[in-house]
Amino acid sequence: MSKPRTILDQMLNSTITFVMAPSIPKAELPALRNYMTKVSTDPDYLVVTNYDVQVVRAYVPAGRRLLVTAPGIPAKETKDLRKQVKRALINPEKWPVVVNYGLVATVI
What we know:
The protein is of the alpha+beta class. Helix content is 31%, strand content 23%. The protein is built from 3 helices and 5 strands, in the order αβαββαββ.
């Protein structure tokens, strides 16, 4: 099997996890990411929070692409979101996309 040439090639048949927690400060996002990474690797791990969290898993089948929209966020956060999605494409189990705003992931 040949090695994927681009990030888009790695997207084929990928499942990406998006974790949205709009009510938490940005400083708490790394801790939430660590919790969610443990959940994906340890079936006995349980996460309990005192804030709202929404988890969405997007399956991107071969030949399809992922469109992520996050209306109203600043340009810098859009760039950060893009970096997180790229990391998630490379290693979806170790890198969930964790944000403190709402977003929509659509397979096109």
